[in-house]
């Protein structure tokens, strides 16, 4: 079984979805410390043809708290309005906006569950059949840290293959994974472009941007634009 273990990100860029799509089980890593100014509760979209960062408001967020101990605030409707105003003339707005609206209008206030819902809803839209599980629901050794904890989760789930984004390559010791019977690989997104209104292409935006400008079939082809490397 192939798995990935990632912190929950709000409407992440397409590389995150490529990882979800290529594994059998995706572990939403929610019982680790929250990271300030990361992509857990923020991302970027186009506003007036320029990258704009939106941030989901959190209540008393701290790096001393676990992700699943944090509650969201009350600015989701403001974010929704920004998305509507920015993309209402995009070709797939009428199809995609109701999905984004459903995500941002949900009643869930727990940060990890709020984002987990969004990951599952968008995966359904892409027809991705990967199974999701929260790391907080896995019986494991919570005294372990970093890659030792990752290996423990893999072994608990009987995974034989672990894939991580390429930017985490320096964090893992291939020999240690091999000694524990786990194949280690990394996923690297290939470069691509698509039409964004009439402006010069801006890469690495939220998946919202990809969905607003591309139909499902094209998105499926984009999900396959990656390489698995050692």
What best-fitting shape do the alpha-carbon axes yield?
globular
- What oligomeric arrangement do these chains adopt? single chain
Radius of gyration: 18 Å
| Secondary structure tally: strands | 10
Largest sheet: 6 strands, mixed
The percent range for strand residues is: 15-25%
> Which structural category do the helix and sheet elements fall into?
alpha/beta
**What is the domain total for the residues?**
1
Order of helices and strands: EHEEEEEHHHEHEHEHHE
Q: pLDDT average, as an integer?
A: 96
Uncertain spans: none
Q: In order across it, which strands form the biggest sheet?
A: 7-2-1-8-9-10
User: Helix proportion of residues, in percent?
Assistant: 25-40%
Number of helices: 8
N- and C-termini, Cα separation? 18 Å
Report on the architecture of this protein.
By secondary structure, this protein is α/β, with parallel strands linked by helices. It has helices spanning 14-22, 76-87, 93-104, 111-125, 146-156, 174-179, 207-213, 216-223, and strands at 2-6, 25-28, 42-47, 50-55, 58-59, 71-72, 131-134, 161-165, 183-189, 226-229. The strands form 3 sheets. A 6-stranded mixed beta sheet has the order 7-2-1-8-9-10. It contains 8 helices and 10 strands. It has one domain (2-229). Helix 2 (76-87) runs antiparallel to helix 3.
